[in-house]
Amino acid sequence: MKVSFFLITLGLCSVAVQAQEIQTQDSLTQKEQKLNEVVVTSGRIALPFSEESRTISIITANQIKNSGATNVADLLQQVAGVDIRRRGTNGSQADLYIRGGSFDQTLLLIDGIKVEDAQTGHHTLNLALPLEVIKRIEIIKGPAARVYGQNAFTGAVNIVTKDDTENLVSVGVNAGSYDQKGASVTVGSKLKNSSHLINYSRNISDGYRYNTDYDNQNIFLKSRFNENAQPIELLATIADKKFGANGFYATPEAKDQYEETQASLVGVSTTFKGEKLTVTPRMYWRRNQDLYLYVRNNPPAYRNLHITNKVGAEVNASYTSKLGVTGFGVDLSKVYISSNNLGDHNRFMGTIFLEHQFKLFNNKFDVTPGVALNYFSDFDAHAFPGIDLGFQLTKTVRLYGNVGYTYRIPTYTDLYYASPTTLGNADLKPEEAVSEEFGVKFNQGSFRASAAFFNRSSQKLIDYVKENEGDLWQAQNIRDVNTKGIEANAAYVYYLGDLMQRFDVGYTYLDDDVQNVAANYSQYSINSLKHNVTLGYTSSFVKGLSEGIFYRYAERTSGDCYKVVDANVTYDIKDIELSFMWNNIFNEAYTETNLVPMPKSNVLFGLRYTFK
Prior knowledge:
Blueprint: H1 2-20, H2 25-36, E1 39-40, E2 47-48, E3 55-60, H3 61-66, H4 72-76, E4 82-87, E5 93-98, E6 106-110, E7 113-114, E8 134-141, H5 145-148, E9 155-161, E10 168-176, E11 180-190, E12 195-205, E13 214-225, E14 232-244, E15 258-270, E16 272-273, E17 277-293, E18 303-321, E19 324-339, E20 343-360, E21 365-376, E22 379-392, E23 397-408, H6 412-416, E24 422-423, E25 431-444, E26 447-466, E27 473-496, E28 499-514, E29 521-522, E30 529-542, E31 545-556, E32 561-573, E33 576-583, E34 602-611
């Protein structure tokens, strides 16, 4: 694999170098400068992408279109260091991991709104939006508690929605293997003093094996009012999913499981901008409902129904002075859960954020210390400090490093879950970690590259243990794990006339040192991506016609490994877009989690027509 990887890289780079001669370097630099100027919006101190002192990846709207992915879960798999462990297809159920850890240690945000679920991290991606309404995705890797608060244990993903609304109606349909069928309608309206973006989509399938059918619907609305004075933004979305869950949970032999989830989010915000002070207040409500049946056609056999609500208000601000930029904010929220298994509980959460960026030595060196102060009504108060360092060595080379203290409070499933084999533990404490990272970025017009070394020392991780074989599994803060690794990414863009060609390569290595515990039986299992290689090549040789091919190699700590190749072709002619997607071209047999087999080779055809 290593030899073939090297030859592929060398061959594609050689083609790219020859093709680059068709266009001048000055023109290339001008076209690629757009990404460097993108302001990363997920923090209080807004910085251009090129000035960030963290490991951040940005998936642009153009990359989303050329990816061949049909949902956020599949799209994120094309990024090295991001581990999406899917159960089934079309994003029905998938867990999000960054740099190892657990599925509840990565935070998801939509336009900066934190949408974690208090019930379980399995619902993190329930609110992943349709790709048609996404402007870009910001992936922040490493400790992020001082920026976002709890759950950003290993990183965060911020989905930024489109705001450049124009008058249009776009209708799309698709069909493919396993009786997949889908339809979507997007309406954009630009009025005198407001703008609106509405999307509805539905996707259904009989499933690629017994009891993996699904029926997924999504409604999205984004409106901006009073645009000529003080704009007010409204965001609302609801995702309704119904799917057969053959082997998704419990054991692989549990073939008749079934689940329905409904996740919704409503947020209202505005931004006051002065010469030195910017203030963004926001209110939001996030709701999740989860119905689980152990036997689909026999609900009384075992049924769980959980409803969680989170209502919050936050204010984020930044102030520019002679000393630099100060970012500060406060986030207050209340969480409620009502469950036939977990019981009825509520929690008040309050977080105060403070950070300041100093720039020294003619702005070549920047230092950003910060702290988050957290209070939970059912846990102790905590302070989570951190610091980012950046040094612009040359115009093209930037060195950076960061260190931070991060944490995750237990979910209600960890605390109160009860089944015939497992018990939660109401006395659990938050998981904690200290993380460090050092990296280098190279940016020269059409070529960008980065490399980073990271280390995370985690304490009080939750494990399910028992002393005797006949005992119930019970949750305990009993594990310490040290995770270290390296990550490298490169992107090269060149043009054949006005036709863009792009080559991406990424690699991540993880090593987990799991400390032993004094228990006879343990459920704790880290199955991280020990080696993860991603390759992507998108090209266009004829105006309106674009092609993409994506390779993913995964080797887990368990020793399991697999190689998956996907490809797509898109043809735009006037207002019509035709697409063809071919997933798992070489029919690789593999699983990503819980021994759930993933689909073999399958195809999807799409047609979209846009009225303007």
